[in-house]
Amino acid sequence: MSRPAPYAHAEPTPHARPQEDLRADDGEGARGAPPTSRRRAPWVLVEVDGSAEAHRALVWALREAARREATVVAVSVLHAPEDDPLKGTARMPRRTQQASRDHLEALVLRAVAETGITGRTRTAILERPVFEALDAAMHGADLVMVGTGGKRLLRPALPRQPLRRVARGA
Question: Average model confidence (pLDDT) for the chain?
Answer without folding.
Answer: 76
